[in-house]
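A quick aside before the break. I want you to see a complete sequence-to-structure record at least once, exactly as it would be stored in a machine-readable document. Don't worry about memorizing anything.
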Amino acid sequence: MADNKLRFDTLKVRGGYDSERHNYAVSVPIYQTAGFDFGNTARGAALFSLEEQGYLYTRVGNPTVEVLEQRVAALDGASGAVALASGMAAVSYTLLNVAEGGGRILTTPHLYGGTVDGLKKLFPKLGITIDVSDQFDFPEALEQEILPDTKAIFVESISNPNGVVADIEGLAQVAHRHGIPLIVDNTFATPYLLNPIRYGADIVIYSATKALNGHGNAIAGLVLEQGGFKWDSGRFPQFEEPYYTLRDATGRERTYLEALPDFPFTGRIRLNYLNYFGAALSPFDAYLVLLGLETLSERVGKQVGTAEKLVRYLESHDRVAWVKHPAAKGSPYRQLADRYLPRGAGAIFTFGLKATVEEAESFIDATRVFSYHANVGDSRSLIINPAKTTHSELTPAEQRRGDIQAETIRLSIGLEDPDDLIEDLEQAFAAVFPVSVPL
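That is the input. The structure line, written in tokens, reads:
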């Protein structure tokens, strides 16, 4: 049965895989090989001219990795996908691919700290200007900030760490009126909670290290494309440029739009950026992500439910100043979450204590079940202080603009019993604040 006729929970287990092509193996095999035999010179020529789809070298394509690509593409309704060695490689290759040769990327201050720092340090030196706008909650106002050389709008669907929810449909409409793509980092939501392509996103990025894998044992990234964006508008000359390496069997040079019409964006990342910058995902790590995907719905569904219980608990605690999650009381993103995230707005959120920074750090140190490290989306529950860790690259002004307060604590909720997590927070409160008094 074709993948497009299957429902989500079937696709996450079976999508992109035909056992007949893999010696009828029930589990996806790990093709731990650097290269592949071409068989004969005629087939080698067909492979290199793209007349035959096949495998040349694991740096640019591998059967295990391809199953991961096709499975996530099926879950997202994408026409093409490329898997990479990390989420940051996915972000970097995507933005370089869209703005190659110079231009501007319009983005928000509400991003992962490493993304912000990379945009600040690297891209301007490569001729790409990063425009940061505070108008992402108001797509119509944001439209005024699109310039003639703006190449894309880039946003996180649920922001790291404070859970800002993007109005994807509104942003997509603005982007498309100006002939530019909307790029959405959907890491926190995963395709289980949100399908950005359904709402008009053109490119979707994942750090598969996080909830897609869900077990904290592999680093991986993915880039997917919707497939219908018009790259031949003249705004993106890199897609209309003939390449000698894309010549057909007659020797005629072709563009990516000609050679790979269904997935020119991810195909170009694969054959240019992945091929020559080399952030290749290993077959074994692809296999680990595939194993994680099989339980995506079950894991994320439970994690979201537990997160909402902890949000309610913390909102009622007299030592908590605020909680930021789309399901929190008074959240300005509740309406957008109801629209885009009916299954829940993720299992990662922040809160602030009525305390000093030192007391907040003591609170983190006092937890026993929560693990203190920088991943999210793990099966284990995690706790961290973003201002000193995941967003420490940001200057004080950038932290203020991104609403990263010094006392912010981020929780990523795992699969433990929610009562054990609440009891762990309760004993941490008792350890740092032995006597509860009205504040």
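Two observations worth writing down. The longest helix spans residues 296-315. The chain is about 35% helix and 15% strand. We'll return to this after the break.
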